[in-house]
TrEMBL record:
Superkingdom per UniProt: Bacteria
Record field: compositional bias (Polar residues): 1-10
Regions of compositional bias (Basic and acidic residues) in chain numbering: 11-21
Name of the protein described by the UniProt record: Transposase DDE domain-containing protein
Gene Ontology process terms (BP): DNA transposition
One GO MF term: DNA binding
Ranges for region Disordered: 1-21
PANTHER family recorded: PHP DOMAIN PROTEIN, TRANSPOSASE
UniProt source species: Acinetobacter kyonggiensis
Every Transposase IS4-like domain range: 2-60
Pfam families named in the record: DDE_Tnp_1
């Protein structure tokens, strides 16, 4: 499962974006977890990145470790 969470950031932060859907200025955490809730991939982006693009970037970044998880499950 992949989900994201927008988090407020300080006004002086160098990298931040605006999530218009949640009305949050800051960062967004994209996290891949298994069915037990254990994390297998994490990516932090600016909040203006879409959930879809963040999910694709997270999968691409953690592709090797996710293949190990899929081999153990299947």
């Amino acid at each position: 499962m992949i989900d994201s969470q927008s988090v407020k950031n300080t006004d002086t932060a160098r990298d931040k974006g605006y999530d218009a859907g949640k009305k949050v200025s800051g960062i967004k955490r994209h996290i891949i977890v298994d069915t037990e809730g254990l994390p297998h991939g994490i990516l932090v982006t600016t909040a203006d990145k879409t959930d879809r693009q963040g999910a694709l970037d997270t999968i691409t970044l953690h592709k090797d470790s996710l293949q190990v998880v899929f081999q153990k499950v299947c």
